[in-house]
From TrEMBL:
<protein>
    <recommendedName>
        <fullName>[acyl-carrier-protein] S-malonyltransferase</fullName>
        <ecNumber>2.3.1.39</ecNumber>
    </recommendedName>
</protein>
<keyword id="KW-0012">Acyltransferase</keyword>
<feature type="domain" description="Malonyl-CoA-[acyl-carrier-protein] transacylase small">
    <location>
        <begin position="139"/>
        <end position="199"/>
    </location>
</feature>
<dbReference type="Pfam" id="PF21124">
    <property type="entry name" value="VinK_C"/>
</dbReference>
<keyword id="KW-0808">Transferase</keyword>
<dbReference type="InterPro" id="IPR016035">
    <property type="entry name" value="Acyl_Trfase/lysoPLipase"/>
</dbReference>
<dbReference type="InterPro" id="IPR050858">
    <property type="entry name" value="Mal-CoA-ACP_Trans/PKS_FabD"/>
</dbReference>
<dbReference type="InterPro" id="IPR049416">
    <property type="entry name" value="VinK-like_small"/>
</dbReference>
<dbReference type="InterPro" id="IPR001227">
    <property type="entry name" value="Ac_transferase_dom_sf"/>
</dbReference>
Amino acid sequence: MMTTDQARSAVVFPGMGPSRFTDVGKFMMIDPFVRKRLAAADDALGRSVLDEFRTAGTDFGAFAQVAFFINSVALADRAVETQGLAPDVCVGFSFGQKAATAFSGALPFAEAVRFTHELALCEQRFFEEQHQDLVTLTITRVPEAALDEVLGELAERGEFHEVSGHLDEGMHMVTMREQVLESFQRRISAVGGYSLYSMKPPAHCRVLTGLRARVEEEVLAKFDVADPELPLVADHDGALITRADQLRTLLLDTFDHPVRWHPVVDTLRGMGVRTVHVTGPDRLIHRLDVTTRAFDVVALGPEQALRPARTTSRKEQ
């Protein structure tokens, strides 16, 4: 057991952005760590993940999700073998919970592959029936007061909206009807902010309690989640997850709880974590000011995998 005066480390599995074969296909074909995980995933699903991913027509489809999951776990494998990664705690941010569940030992890898695939299909069926008009937009450089002003305008017009995430100072995720997306983006620009990307189907909002219930009944009930061998930190409130029942709840909370990164940072700092390894195709977490201020950040994505990992030093407090 580590004493409290020893610096600890964490591994962070990032959330999923648009995942395209053209961006990561070559990496997946040549990286030995990915190839090993791909072979196990092919056996688990009875088909070639790479072939299915290559022919997929959507950035967030079932096999795009499986590919993202595999890449995240394989990049953690690489960090363990080549950099001596031996984390004291792990975090799965949004979609990254699936990789964290596998890496923590709560589900064997093959089971986690099947879970990821079945969950993606369940979500697809749900959104074919409900909430087809909703999107989740990530915005930045929007102070709380400005966000409240713009959201207040939506409320005055009776427009549905929910805040789906708080990522950094001025960076948020907002779910709304797709029909108002362009006008909302114009208002964000008018208050000095920027729109980064939108996700469809939407994520992390209370209106998706029906999806949560369906996943619990149709997917999660099939899998025997064990106590994690490595503790996890919940991505919406920073709670420490050490038991199977807590992890099962966390896997369901992701549907109808907004993600919040600051509580995760607070928990990791309170545990004495000084270095975080972000292992996966991350476009966000390793760049956030709140992350780089608090930790030494080692980013290992596909683009860094075949060259020495980049470390971002903590800024002076």
